[in-house]
């Protein structure tokens, strides 16, 4: 009996030990799983950090590009301003030259106008003399035409009278013929 009891105790102890071992194994497994999860989380965090860093780098690059563009624009603006200033100076010089030319032209125009006025006065006088002569000639021609027209009118009147007489004679002859036919 004692032996049996010992055996039973031993078996129980063994069972307990087995259970402990199993529990330890389970705990180890759980710890391993936890560690794995932690490692995964760490990896994810690292990836996120890398992504963030990449994004920041991209943003930095974009900012640098924008700054470069702004600098280029500033340079372009400066160049444009310089060109505008040069153009303004050239325009002012051109305007001054144009004003001088205009003044010279005005003086020339005034001289020409004076000469033209003198010529016009002379021409007007000549034209007046010519017009007077032409008027006299026209008056003479009109008088002659009036005389001719009067003669033509008289001839037309005579022709009309002759035509009327002929028409009357024809009408008389027709009336006579009608009367004869009626008789």
UniProtKB/TrEMBL annotation:
Keyword Coiled coil in record: yes
Keyword Coiled coil on entry: yes
Keywords linked to the UniProt accession: Coiled coil
Chain spans, region Disordered: 1-183
Positions in coiled-coil regions: 1-183
The protein's name: Uncharacterized protein
Species of the source: Cherax quadricarinatus
């Amino acid at each position: 009996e004692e032996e049996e009891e010992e055996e039973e105790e031993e078996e129980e102890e063994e069972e307990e030990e087995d259970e402990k071992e199993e529990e330890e194994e389970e705990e180890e497994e759980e710890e391993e799983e936890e560690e794995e999860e932690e490692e995964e989380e760490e990896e994810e965090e690292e990836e996120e950090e890398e992504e963030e860093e990449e994004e920041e780098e991209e943003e930095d690059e974009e900012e640098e590009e924008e700054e470069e563009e702004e600098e280029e624009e500033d340079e372009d603006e400066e160049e444009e301003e310089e060109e505008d200033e040069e153009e303004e100076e050239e325009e002012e010089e051109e305007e001054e030259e144009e004003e001088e030319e205009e003044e010279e032209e005005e003086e020339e125009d005034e001289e020409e106008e004076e000469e033209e006025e003198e010529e016009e006065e002379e021409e007007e006088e000549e034209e007046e003399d010519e017009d007077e002569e032409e008027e006299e000639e026209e008056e003479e021609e009109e008088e002659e035409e009036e005389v001719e027209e009067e003669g033509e009118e008289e001839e037309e009147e005579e022709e009309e009278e002759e035509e009327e007489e002929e028409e009357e004679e024809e009408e008389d002859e027709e009336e006579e013929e009608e009367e004869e036919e009626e008789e």
